[in-house]
């Protein structure tokens, strides 16, 4: 992929729709209409923002066929509607859906989460993503090898459908604090002794990995210089089927640097979820990769917490 990624979260899209509220209210739309499935979340956001009914159309790409997909009837001719899609791509989805509604006498304006250099149609409302490859929150599974393989089979005509989104879920996990207990930092004053202690540790009795079907990799903050003894521990306890990704020897071990390394490694591994043992690291990883599902695993309480981060500016807080 030559273009840099532009990741758009649900929060960012919701705030963007909210920023458009005055302009959308002034249009006096009768309904917001989402193209299933990518346009559905945006149509719902618009519906809540300006208080209009929401409806949906379906699109069959191979046949270029549009159909009304709502129990409510189509608005009467002459009504102004806002047609929503996630991206204005190089295909015909948006243009064909717009033409379908116009043939039924509707006045159609368009809104998409983004448009880019190859968009066939320039929407009336959209984020300018020229020069970027846009990823939406409902496309996080596009990082995985399984999704890409199925998409290529679909594009070539070798398959007629994709799997369900949840079937593409793939996991990477932290090591210390997930598979085995952390050795307290104070013990590392005597490095050789601490490493021997760590090597002798047994796995936790309760592991988050036992609940999951597709754990692909261990991504650890341990430096690569420890690879041999780390691989030996994984092999000894039956985890050697997992890919092992370790921090480069020349990279510092500050929290921000380690989080950035883990986030980038998770993307390279093509996973949708990452399970981290340290709450601060979990927050920093979620900040680095907004569409990665980051779970902080609390081994002591045998529970996980899904992490999300939104920037906060404290300058507006009164003294």
UniProtKB/TrEMBL annotation:
The keyword Glycosyltransferase is annotated on this UniProt entry: yes
MF terms in GO: glycosyltransferase activity
InterPro entries linked: PRTase-like, PRTase_dom
Stored Pfam families: Pribosyltran
Domain Phosphoribosyltransferase: 29-131
Entry keyword set: Glycosyltransferase, Transferase
Annotated transmembrane regions: none
Keyword Transferase attached: yes
Top-rank taxon: Bacteria
Protein name: Phosphoribosyltransferase
